[in-house]
Design brief:
Two copies of one chain form a homodimer.
Chain A lengths: L13 H9 L6 E10 L4 E11 L2 E6 L11 E4 L4 E4 L1 E6 L8 H8 L4 E6 L2 H20 L4 E6 L18 H7 L5 E7 L2 H5 L3 H12 L3 E4 L8 H8 L4 E2 L5 H9 L3 E5 L12 H4 L8 E4 L5 H6 L3 H10 L4 H7 L2 H6 L17 E4 L9 E4 L2 E5 L2 E2 L10 H4 L15 E2 L7 E8 L8 E10 L2 E2 L7 E7 L8 E7 L7 E5 L8 E5 L2 H14 L2 E6 L2 E7 L11 H17 L7 H6 L9 E4 L2 E4 L4 E3 L6
Parallel strand pairs in A: 1-4, 1-5, 6-7, 7-8, 8-9, 9-10, 11-12, 12-13, 19-23
Antiparallel strand pairs in A: 1-2, 2-3, 5-14, 14-15, 15-16, 16-17, 18-21, 19-20, 20-21, 22-23, 22-25, 24-25, 24-26, 26-27, 28-29, 29-30
Helix pairs in contact in A: 4-6, 11-12
Amino acid sequence: MHDSFTIAPWHQSLRQLVDVAAGRRPADLVVRGAVWVNVQSRELIPNTDLAVSAGRFAYCGEDASHCVGEDTVIIEADGKYAVPGLCDGHMHIESGMLTPARFAEAIIAHGTTTLFADPHEIANVLGIDGVRLMLNESLMQPINIYMQMPSCAPSAPGLETTGRCITPEDVTEAMAWPGIIGLGEMMNFPDVVAGDQQMLAEIAATQAAGKTVGGHYASLDLGVDFHAYLAGGPADDHEGTRETDAISRVRQGMRSMMRLGSAWYDVASQITAITEKGLDPRHFILCTDDCFCATLVEDGHMDRVVRHAIDCGCAPLVALQMATINVAEHFGLEREIGSIAPGRRADLFLTDCLTELPVSDVFARGRHLASQGKLLIETPRLDWPVAALNTVKLGRTLDAHDFRLKAPNGAASSVRCKVIGVVENQAPTKHLKAILPVCHGFVKSDPEQDICHIALVERHRRTGHVVNALVRGFGYRGSMALASTIAHDSHHMIVVGTDPLLMAQAANRLGTIQGGISLWRDDAEIASVHLPVAGLMSPLPAQEVAATVMQLNTELAACGCQLNNAVMQHSLLALPVIPELRISDLGLVDAVSFKLVSPFDED
Amino acid sequence: MHDSFTIAPWHQSLRQLVDVAAGRRPADLVVRGAVWVNVQSRELIPNTDLAVSAGRFAYCGEDASHCVGEDTVIIEADGKYAVPGLCDGHMHIESGMLTPARFAEAIIAHGTTTLFADPHEIANVLGIDGVRLMLNESLMQPINIYMQMPSCAPSAPGLETTGRCITPEDVTEAMAWPGIIGLGEMMNFPDVVAGDQQMLAEIAATQAAGKTVGGHYASLDLGVDFHAYLAGGPADDHEGTRETDAISRVRQGMRSMMRLGSAWYDVASQITAITEKGLDPRHFILCTDDCFCATLVEDGHMDRVVRHAIDCGCAPLVALQMATINVAEHFGLEREIGSIAPGRRADLFLTDCLTELPVSDVFARGRHLASQGKLLIETPRLDWPVAALNTVKLGRTLDAHDFRLKAPNGAASSVRCKVIGVVENQAPTKHLKAILPVCHGFVKSDPEQDICHIALVERHRRTGHVVNALVRGFGYRGSMALASTIAHDSHHMIVVGTDPLLMAQAANRLGTIQGGISLWRDDAEIASVHLPVAGLMSPLPAQEVAATVMQLNTELAACGCQLNNAVMQHSLLALPVIPELRISDLGLVDAVSFKLVSPFDED
């Protein structure tokens, strides 16, 4: 049954396509009377018929009557625009908390037919095996999900321990897999700049395979380091936030990927490079990077991004090019996807407005997949192996003692501590200091200062190891705890709370349900999100997962947290590559000096 | 010594490039203070320094001081424009009558640093072995000569016999050779449209190798046949002559290659698709297709084409994109050539005017190759094997009897004959009729009607076979004969003359000198061009070859020929794929019905 969505390469369907175009063989599908959104020439061409065979366009022109046979399905476009299926140039499926099948299910009706997905999160948990599993489910889908081989697991070697590592040998192996399109974002830019052997070996393996090296230059410095990074081979970057970032990347021969994720808003500030500075838009690409399931359900996917680009003043045809042919050309797939033209996969959607972009009917590989927001097929699901469903390995039952921060020997009634300071709507944290009371040799949190406990529980190797520290900014009141196995990038378990016992209960609960998010208040779990696939993804539909996340958010607010996106703020606290202070399985991390530090202020 | 021009892949030079960009290792070359012609962003960026190492750009930015060491060569650009080396998107080296080494020598000072060459002519003589030889000399050059595997030898199966054939197996084999970039122009479009097994197999082998299929749709019909051809996979086409041809090709996902060759003038009529209709120019490409050596010497190469495009009203940066990054992207080489950006081959030229485009200094792979029109290096030459230098195989000495057209048995004093009608400045011929006298059983030519003899001498298989017919339009007077081994596409020998004995002498002379062109008048050779390599190319410099051709033209005029380009008109008389009447080794060919026909009018 899953095979039904596969498509043969163009070179195996040449005869069939020529025969259909010549009128010697009937098409499977003809879309009649559309306005052809021609991203190749940047034109709108009215009164166009599209004939499809073997999942590909066989004929695009003014009259496909000669391609119509008895069994040809006819779709009357009635003057609607026929737009190439949208492509997301860089994204992480795991960010949706959904498996590839459920992610695909959620986005098809929004007109997205191609993803360039970097399974970076699962790679941190399951290594190359996790990548393979993501690829396997992706290859079963009726849309195109190309996979980028993650480059950086761990992303901060020496400062964290991942479940599994990605090696240059893994990269070399993966480059030979069908469906692997390149290397995922090379986020370890300091090591590329430094000429690190391993990072350059991963890039070299990708280039030698003729594939695309993804970039991730998360720095505002456009000086010598930037140039050294460029010489190291990354071909795109989605970390730009300013117009000058977009311009400098394109000038240097990179693709500027401008993202609108659930929590990324980097299109408006950069698209002026096109709309005001008038640069050639061909090397600009739109992407989402990270989309929560709730965004998919409520706002859409790449249709949302294109709409936003148009709202920012971008011409609709240019915005659509940035989500279709520009992406395809970047990955060397222009003869395969990204435009409506003979031989390409018959991926398209119909819409009656190029600015609002309401998506009516969606086709991929010539199949009618969605109509008026309703999916017409089921997306095939992988039978995930036990190894992928059993990734929360605590090794023992945790108790309240595990979540206490022991004061330094000889500490008096109070101690000066380092505190991770949460900054609303931003990934960087602050490195704060605070004086906290010591009781029976342990540091006490202090609701008055909005300081509570944070712990990092090792969950990959059954060590039962717990690192404790302090965090400020969540606004938690009363007795509560939140545990989550979404803990970028190595995805151990982050536990935040005001009560060590509840923290232990929340942590143990995730051991039982094998991953997700568990919120406890006053001795009971009051909300949870089950993410049993690698502790990161749910095999349930987006609507259901989104509903549990929304309920969690409601309960978090009831616990006193007023942050805009509390779940994401939690999930980033263990990310040691972004300043200033983080927690990892190895201890507290000064993410400015890139050193492990004591939780106490010893200056 | 030849190895000195090779360049390692980017992935083997990553460390070195990063080190140079970071200032840890000195660059080999720094070009200082240029205006960066940025074809990626379509901008001019003043005050740019370019640092080069390992033959590639390591740094492109405002200050490369940190890349300069003791041994770094500094070139002061003094505000000149730094333009990416020009790329010729489709061309035949053989048309220059020069070997690849001599062709490269002739074009470098004009700023061309990349050729996409289809060795179609030598393939007709020597098959895949000839392709390999062209590739071998090409790979030795200091500029980039990518080779397209010829697709159609013979171009008219059943109507001509080539020296060797190209098979789908040959194509599959060649796709694995380094330097083979795709399939050469698929000119047998009727067979693609018909779904012919062999043509589709060649295309499939190319696509399966991930390479580019060159197109050649020499027809004004944009109906069903055009669409069937498109479905068959050709990715570009240079046969368009009208604005509508360019537009329809780009809309259909092809690259429109607009050519300005020595005898092709297809830019002005098509570039309005950009300059007036406002199409996105990214899929438009400039090329020469065929350039005689005299054009290279007198007018230039791709600089001439870009200049012409600008004269036609195209913005200079768009015209330059069409000769640089557009070409590179089409062939999947955008990370290698076609722009000035980190990692790319350091191919560039300096100029002080973007409209006149005078080329001052030329660099390729970081080497300073030319300055003010003077070459600073020698282009390495292949030691061509005897098999390639001994291709005129007549099998015997020809005499006057071989060049007589025997009248039909029982013919009276005159006979009605078919006559090939030359049309000045056009490739198509006319199918004419004429009544000619018969003398001793043989047809006599008639200077009064401007009709003389034409013969096709088989030269590949030593058969000594000669086909005789009649031609009109050269204006030859007196006793003369011209023989040439440039005889598209199968390159036997064409002999045209008023005197059978001189025709035999000219033919025998080419047997002696092993190919070229020999002009005889009144019992003596009065001009000749020696083309010993496959009977098509000279190993001498362009200036010398051009001088002999110019002398030949002068003498042809003295023989009465006033045609603009007599040599080309001769060379196309055996091309059975273009209407209306042609000669081949198999007989007279009706190139409308694609049938062999009698030289006599039997209606």
